[in-house]
Amino acid sequence: MIKLGIIGTNWITDQFVEAALESKKYHLKAVYSRELETAKKFGEKYAGKIEYADDLTTFFNLAIDTVYIASPNSLHFPQAKQAVLAGKNVIVEKPAFSNPTEFEELVHLANQKRVFFFEAARNIHEESFKAITNRLPDNDHIIGADLSFMKYSSRYDLVLAGEEPNIFSPHFSGGAVMDLGVYPIYAAIAWFGMPRESHYFSQKIATDVDGIGFAILRYETFDVSIRTGKISDSYQKSEIYLDEGTLVLNAINSINQAAFHRHDKSVEEISLQSLENPMIEEALDFAKIMNHPKDVELGELYQEWVELARNVNQVLYDLRKSAGIVFDADQK
Ligand SMILES: NC(=O)c1ccc[n+]([C@@H]2O[C@H](COP(=O)([O-])OP(=O)(O)OC[C@H]3O[C@@H](n4cnc5c(N)ncnc54)[C@H](OP(=O)(O)O)[C@@H]3O)[C@@H](O)[C@H]2O)c1
């Protein structure tokens, strides 16, 4: 059983802990919070002996082997670094790190310490996503794609009231492309590989990060457009244009409806299922790697995920650069 410790006590950590426990591969052993009271309030919902800490040095000395990190984005790097140096595997919420410098340092350290680093990019671990991946032909048969993920954030109300919540703050590496754009970017790179150029056209909000934007990833023979944002809702489906027709997806994560529309107007419905807790599949995937550290095939799969995470991190960085979005983390 994996001995799990968690950092960050918001709802997403509950969702991950519930997924981890449901997978039957993890025990929740320790909770860190800046406030001991918050840590205890979080942990008391779960069974078993759980230890608590309000400082990270104590926390990393507890009996845990793996840490799930769901703090504000800019804190992922220093916290993951401390965890890895203490010999822990890290599951880091998306987007794992603010820029390629942080990414490379963390991966280098993880390799040195012989621990695993996972980015919790849940969409690529979902069975429905894998089914779409298997359905796609190689890039010679792709004509383009139009991917979308945009959702109004209630925390934008705080921005309108003159505040700077973490998710919209350049001090915490926030903004639309980092928070939601990361999912379609993951999809594009998982499906089509690394683009040769990427551009981002975005509108900044009062906090100086992107509230809404439109990215274009240019490949050798086609383009992928990506709509993302946190200051409005999109009801647009995602589409992939193939030489034989169009693959229409109801979403870019938790995909549960897909249909292939051929040029002759015939339609093939693709049967897919998304789980109620969309984090179970990633919890299982990560556990498989951690429980079989010497398995060669799983080792290769792990390296593929790291490479994919590296490419996503690079594209996010390039997109931000093209739109003039600068984080405190870039200036260190
Ligand atoms: N995979 C998904 O579907 C999904 C969904 C939502 C969010 N996320 C990711 O999860 C991460 C957290 O997002 P969130 O919206 O939950 O962030 P958040 O509410 O801003 O912060 C998360 C936790 O971090 C701690 N924290 C907050 N502000 C802090 C500060 N200034 N200094 C140190 N610690 C602080 C708090 O825990 P304590 O008070 O206990 O210290 C808080 O519960 C992000 O990386 C986000 O992208 C992923």
Automatic annotation (TrEMBL):
Domain of life according to the entry: Bacteria
InterPro entries: Gfo/Idh/MocA-like_OxRdtase_N, GFO_IDH_MocA-like_dom
One Pfam family per UniProt: GFO_IDH_MocA
Domain GFO/IDH/MocA-like oxidoreductase: 163-247
Protein name as annotated: Gfo/Idh/MocA family oxidoreductase
Domain Gfo/Idh/MocA-like oxidoreductase N-terminal, residue spans: 2-117
